[in-house]
Amino acid sequence: MLLDLDGTLYVGSRVVPGASEAVRWLRDQGLTVRFTTNTDSIPPAALADRLAQRGLEASEDELVTPVAVAARLLAPDPAARVLAVASDGVRQLLASCLAGPGEPATHVLVADPSYGATYEDLDAAFRALQAGAELVATQVNRIARRDDGEHLDTGGWVRLLEYATGQTARVLGKPSPEFFTAPLDALGRKPETALVVGDDLAADIAGGQAVGAATVLVRSGKGDRSQPGADAEPDAVIDSVADLPRLLQR
Prior knowledge:
Elements (H helix, E strand, L loop, with lengths): L1 E2 L6 E2 L2 E2 L3 H10 L5 E3 L7 H10 L9 E2 L1 H9 L7 E4 L2 H6 L13 E4 L8 H12 L3 E4 L5 E4 L2 E4 L1 H12 L4 E2 L5 H11 L7 E4 L2 H10 L3 E5 L17 E3 L5 H5 L2
Parallel strand pairs: 1-4, 1-12, 4-5, 6-7, 7-8, 8-11, 12-13, 13-14
Antiparallel strand pairs: 2-3, 9-10
């Protein structure tokens, strides 16, 4: 079971009613749950703490995030020097491979610039890319839902740099096929045995379908509205993750 977080188990700071009970039911049935999220503003440990504060139990090992993928990909590489357009928490996770002052970057990582990225940050990223660095994106979602409505998500910043440089970013999060297959490979499971549940047609539904998984769209989060540019058809649609146990018992 590959279960989305933001928009599925919670929307903004509000936990979806019945979400924790649904996760508990899945575990009671002996199903293996992995939480697949494009959350890229904080490292996995901080995300696990945030979930616990909301009454949602998930260990760091159960969290599949593009930030964790970036750390596994870049931190062990002795040649990697990363210019990270990212929050302090994400930068700390990547501290061992960050490019120092005046040091040429091999990679430019864009991860939720809503922390307060400036023109200078993006211009430095542009210049590093023009000098030969590879553009790496944690995710390319168009919008993020918060308590006060919709906001620009990481995808807009990534597309800006793609347009300016002519590069195409390597995407680490959803809907990248590797993002879905990596946790399944670690569990020794084939994608055809997995169920992807989420609110985003492009990231969750199309991404899951691309690797051969079954998919369920929830109408919470983004799932309750039209999503431009996404035409994937889920295998099932439910109002809320709270309805997932009933669906699986049919």
